[in-house]
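Tokens as discussed.
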């Protein structure tokens, strides 16, 4: 199965789901949004959910699993802008991650899984 990884910067467009963003961040960035629609940017596809989650949660470009398989994204996650939100799409499922998850264990915490 393919696991497609997408990112979006809060500086480019609003979040795709309700999230508490610090007031000063909203005020400083809302005027910069190019559209009210969330614009996702595809950064890579891998064939392992473990690899996809690691890459997203840790903001990494590559991942080597316990069997020495190495996975790479097509481009660096932060090569254009800092991003606030990420998602992994596979089959009929979408996992959403963001910078604003309270008590997150990783840099980006999983917030929602939708089927």
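Sequence:
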């Amino acid at each position: 199965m393919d696991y497609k990884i997408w990112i979006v910067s809060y500086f480019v467009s609003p979040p795709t789901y309700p999230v508490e963003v610090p007031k000063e961040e909203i005020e400083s960035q809302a005027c910069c949004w190019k559209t009210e629609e969330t614009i996702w940017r595809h950064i890579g596809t891998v064939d392992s959910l473990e690899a996809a989650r690691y890459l997203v949660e840790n903001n990494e470009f590559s991942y080597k699993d316990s069997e020495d398989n190495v996975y790479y994204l097509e481009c660096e996650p932060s090569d254009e802008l800092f991003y606030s939100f990420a998602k992994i799409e596979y089959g009929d499922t979408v996992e959403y991650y963001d910078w604003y998850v309270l008590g997150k264990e990783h840099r980006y915490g999983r917030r929602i899984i939708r089927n």
